[in-house]
Q: What sequence folds into this?
């Protein structure tokens, strides 16, 4: 398995080992010994004979046994030479702690490139540089120097040492969970996010992957890997650095493409990644998702011992898209039997004092509610855990009994329970018991609601998995040879855009139903082309030197006679000459006039992190003023194309607003998919704009199509990002 | 002061006093004794001689001394008789614990009405019924039975006993704060939210009011009071029961007017109330706002000891509308002097290890940053409080030194500091010290960011206080006599709506620039009116029996000759007869055709909680499909009218989109204000619709105006809500 020798290393050389307790070269060895690493430890430092009782080597090549990885604790400038030594020794990987590389700008970047070149030459994989390190808690291989990290089933992958510390501290103080691995990716100079994700995805002991990300180098590969991993285990991610100040703080170099954070969120979600916006929810999300089965049908019951919490929870779950179904007759009858008359037994269920002298009734209620076939999961909110604290100690024993019973219910029944308890921070034993059974307990009502909603969210993803694009980014080769000819001709003429008729030809090659214009170089040709069209026509100038055709008087509409066409041709030529004396004028194209309908816009561009993205929106003010658009990373599936069409706010207009006929959404969907195919087929394309596209009751018309090609410069920029 | 004898009672009779430890009649006396209430306690129960060592009275009238309030712990059905006894004794108030009143529906409602009638007759003010009780923690007057409630400077006003328990528990476990008063408003049968708010507003020991609300009976009076109170102290409120399930859970009877929760939030915010959406933030908001001065200019600095927290905080504060300004040159130079080379000193400031061996440097940094005139407040995020835990005990003393210094800084400097600490839940002494100085500390980064943003939010409210409507709801009398005549004529004819020309007349009376139609009863009259109009005219039918004029063929447009007008008149009459043989046809109105322009809609209606509200939006799909509208509770100020116009998403269209001329926003604003005045002047109006209103480069045209009057039935419904 890739990375196995690195992350499951049987032996570690600590290069820059030290006797000074404040140095990482000391702390790392000290921690490995204290935590009882089950592999071999080799301190390397030419100035020492032994460190912490271990023999110290002058050079890694002095070690007789094989060495799997090196922890490099020496300064940045020494790293290339150290790696050359490591390479001769045949290590599989190195953890580079030092900062002073790419994050410092051009000079650091050069050093980073040099380091990576040495590593590649010797086949060494690098973690970092500029990282807090790595831990394999199954092997007690702790290269971070932080002791007593709880062991468990979550893999932690972050781009910030103090976020790792935050999450580890939270696990320790507020849960019974812990970690299989931790990796601080640092500058991601060699091993990228997706490679770690693949490894954690295959690790049988890891039940969820928890990520904090500021920026990603290989977004597309990550999406592809995430799509595979999330099918088997949840991946939870918080992405920061959205705001410009946040970016300044993160030192991120991602392009500031407007709406990009929307694109990123959408892309992650489509790949099944659970995207968290609120850092309070990050660890709880991983706790819940690694402990409980997903909810398949979105229907949740609330069990409360008071109205306020029930009301707030009902509001929140509704906002989070969950259903709070009415309970069945039988369920309500059975609840009525064990609860006082004033109890409320629709959903939410409010026990209304029914548990005051016996909180074990919570378990009875939970059993009855979870037996209801309308209910897929249960959220318990309120005071559970505090009856023994607030009232009498004996009630605590009843709470513990209830905890055992609910724990067994969850283990057997496959319907999850999540708890909110006001008394969580007082750490009553009953709540610890719930956690022992994998039932998470939160003192925040908001977090508890969010967590149960994520089980439903992940359940929805899993149940519609096959409807999604599989995020395999292989360029399609189908229509490519003929399309390439068009693109190459433009490129050979030094053009960075296709003419409108070339762009339409390219679309037609991929099966798009578009009127294929031909170039008319004389008035006679224009008239001849117009004759072949039914109804009036439009003439548009074709010139590489005239981009905004209307401004140059290069567009004439609604021409319905030979005479009109001939005159329009002459006028356009004259206008163009007047507009730009030296313009290279190729002729005009003749198009049929398009019937009225609903205007939409489709566009694509290349994003620095995720590659090609597509945008769809309604024409005119809806896009330009109201920004009512949908974005997706390409390629898109039929499912995703439908979702894009439905998710814009003005979507009802497509169904025939105010007596107008409904638009042909099927044709629109097909067009979006064809655009996806086209952009996949030609990596040479930088941007495509179909604007406007007119939707009819049957079919769509592409009125104008513009395709920009990558210039050498922009090609370089992309290569740099990759 | 109103309510003083009730909330600051010198003596309490406990009616339904008991020796049974499980009864509220026992717990209340036990708690009053245990907490050392400084007034007199009189148990009342005809079956007992003494309870808990206090002499017990058979009837409240057997008590020789005066009694300020009664705690009524007897069942619902006994309450009217108990109150009659209390009335004879001359008590000022009663706390009614029992449920079984209005919340149970019609029968309970009758009992509640009976109870309130007895109370009013005797001048007794009621807290509840269906309440957990009341506490005055300054006097140790604790009528709830919950012991050890922390004392402090926050007044707590809730509609849910378990939310009160949540907030009190949070105060105890996570802060050094506490409460002056607690009131559970219960069914709000007599004393309403605004009366408690007025009392807390005047209480010199209360520095903030913390509220949990599910539904309000007197929304308008609350807004009016809130506007006065929030000028002097912050009022923090969470309103639940938004979703339909939440409403079901809350048992709320508020009308389900679409967008109502938006109206409520907007109205509260305009009255200066800090509206909290997330229950995790509710207590922290009160803690921060009661402890620290507001931020006046919205500019905040972030001080961090690691990149991840700084980045997340920068994102969050930006989302929350705060500025994170670059620090001044001098500030940066001084920070550079005390921090290591790798530290980042724009804003956020990342000490980058500079505090590892001396966390007291946080105080130095804070001092330098707060001295910067570009900075109005400081958020410190990260590990502070944990240096002594994670590294060496001696570092804890340095943290404590820093806490003292920052505490004194805040006390002197009037610039607030808020802390996030990863180690908050480990309760290090340094963080307790910060809280002692009024510097709040949160273990949630999100909550810390939200809290500092609320200081800025409240500061903005205070600095623009006079620009807001003062929420005084006195009906204006100016144009009323003549307007009344129009309304009364319609009412006397049994109509529940005004004719279009009557509605326009009413608008004109209030100074709205509208074409005043006259009723033409013959074709000759119609022609004569048309002569007086410049350009073509429109004719519209006037009949109380024809509401949808176009559907009945009752509208003819673009008539530009006498002949056309005459024929249109005859056609309209014939169409109307055909449409409804028995229709009462009054004639037609003649209007000038309105020039094209941008269509908007203005509407008003009566909301069950807040009275008259106004809606403004762009005509057509923007309102109907995209719901792009702004709502406000009336009356509105010029400031608010401008905000309504600016806040709709399609607002840029008013500024002249795509080469069209800009619309007359001044005239639109004036029209909104006139609508506000008109609706204030005539409480008889149920709904008004100006649809469409056409905006021109100069002026606006009201094409159609519809005014519905309150029917007797709807008048009753409103009385019921009041």
A:
């Amino acid at each position: 398995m890739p990375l196995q020798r690195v992350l499951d290393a049987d032996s570690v050389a600590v290069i820059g080992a030290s006797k000074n307790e404040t140095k990482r070269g000391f702390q790392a060895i000290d921690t490995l010994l204290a935590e009882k690493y089950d592999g071999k430890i080799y301190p390397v430092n030419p100035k020492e004979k032994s460190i912490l009782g271990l023999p110290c080597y002058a050079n890694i090549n002095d070690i007789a046994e094989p060495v799997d990885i090196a922890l490099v604790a020496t300064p940045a400038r020494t790293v290339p030479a150290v790696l050359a030594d490591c390479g001769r020794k045949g290590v599989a990987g190195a953890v580079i702690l030092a900062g002073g590389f790419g994050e410092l700008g051009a000079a650091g970047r050069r050093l980073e490139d040099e380091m990576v070149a040495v590593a590649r030459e010797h086949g060494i994989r690098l973690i970092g540089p500029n990282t807090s390190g790595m831990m394999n808690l199954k092997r007690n291989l702790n290269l971070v120097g932080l002791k007593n990290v709880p062991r468990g089933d979550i893999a932690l992958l972050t781009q910030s040492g103090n976020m790792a510390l935050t999450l580890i501290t939270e696990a320790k103080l507020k849960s019974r969970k812990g970690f299989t691995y931790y990796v601080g990716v640092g500058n991601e100079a060699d091993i990228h996010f997706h490679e770690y994700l693949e490894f954690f995805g295959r690790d049988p002991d890891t039940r969820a992957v928890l990520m904090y990300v500021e920026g990603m180098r290989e977004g597309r590969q990550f999406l592809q890997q995430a799509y595979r991993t999330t099918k088997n285990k949840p991946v939870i991610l918080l992405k920061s650095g959205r705001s410009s100040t946040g970016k300044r703080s993160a030192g991120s170099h991602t392009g500031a493409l407007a709406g990009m954070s929307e694109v990123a969120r959408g892309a992650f979600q489509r790949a099944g990644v659970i995207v968290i916006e609120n850092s309070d929810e990050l660890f709880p999300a991983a706790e819940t998702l690694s402990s409980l089965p997903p909810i398949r049908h979105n229907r949740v019951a609330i069990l409360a011992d008071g109205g306020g919490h029930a009301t707030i929870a009902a509001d929140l779950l509704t906002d989070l898209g969950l259903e709070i179904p009415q309970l069945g007759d039988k369920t309500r009858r059975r609840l009525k039997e064990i609860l006082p008359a004033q109890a409320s037994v629709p959903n939410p269920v409010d026990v209304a004092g029914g548990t005051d002298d016996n909180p074990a009734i919570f378990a009875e209620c939970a059993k009855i509610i979870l037996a209801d076939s309308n209910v897929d999961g249960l959220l318990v909110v309120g005071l559970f855990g505090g009856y023994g604290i607030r009232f009498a100690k004996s009630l605590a024993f009843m709470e513990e009994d209830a905890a055992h019973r609910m724990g067994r219910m969850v283990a057997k029944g496959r319907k999850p329970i999540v708890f909110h308890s006001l008394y969580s921070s007082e750490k009553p034993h009953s709540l610890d018991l719930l956690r022992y059974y994998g039932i998470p307990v939160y003192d925040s009502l908001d977090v508890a609601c969010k967590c149960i909603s994520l089980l439903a969210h992940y359940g929805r993803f899993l149940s519609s998995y096959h409807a999604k694009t599989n995020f395999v980014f292989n360029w399609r080769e189908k229509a490519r040879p003929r399309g390439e000819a068009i693109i190459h001709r433009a490129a050979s003429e030094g053009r960075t855009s296709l003419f409108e008729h070339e762009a339409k030809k390219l679309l037609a090659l991929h099966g798009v139903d578009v009127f294929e214009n031909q170039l008319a170089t004389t008035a006679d040709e224009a008239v001849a082309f117009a004759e072949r069209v039914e109804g009036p026509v439009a003439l548009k100038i074709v010139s590489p030197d005239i981009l905004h055709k209307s401004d140059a008087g290069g567009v004439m509409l609604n021409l319905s006679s030979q005479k009109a066409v001939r005159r329009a041709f002459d006028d356009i030529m004259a206008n163009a000459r007047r507009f730009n004396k030296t313009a290279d004028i190729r002729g005009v194209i003749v198009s049929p006039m398009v019937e009225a309908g609903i205007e939409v816009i489709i566009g694509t561009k290349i994003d620095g992190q995720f590659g090609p993205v597509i945008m769809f929106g309604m024409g005119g003010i809806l896009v330009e003023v109201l920004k009512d658009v949908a974005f997706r990373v390409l390629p898109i599936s039929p499912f995703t194309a439908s979702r894009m069409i439905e998710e814009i706010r003005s979507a009802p207009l497509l169904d025939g607003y105010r007596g107008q006929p409904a638009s042909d959404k099927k044709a629109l969907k097909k067009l979006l998919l064809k655009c996806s195919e086209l952009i996949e087929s030609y990596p040479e394309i930088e941007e495509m704009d179909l604007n406007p596209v007119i939707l009819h009751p049957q079919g769509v018309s592409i009125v104008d199509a513009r395709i920009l090609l990558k210039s050498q410069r922009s090609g370089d920029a992309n290569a740099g990002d990759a």
Notes: Chain A touches chain B through 70 residues (CB under 8 Å). Confidence is low (pLDDT under 50) at residues 251-259, 713-722 of chain A. The two ends of chain A are 24 Å apart (CA to CA).
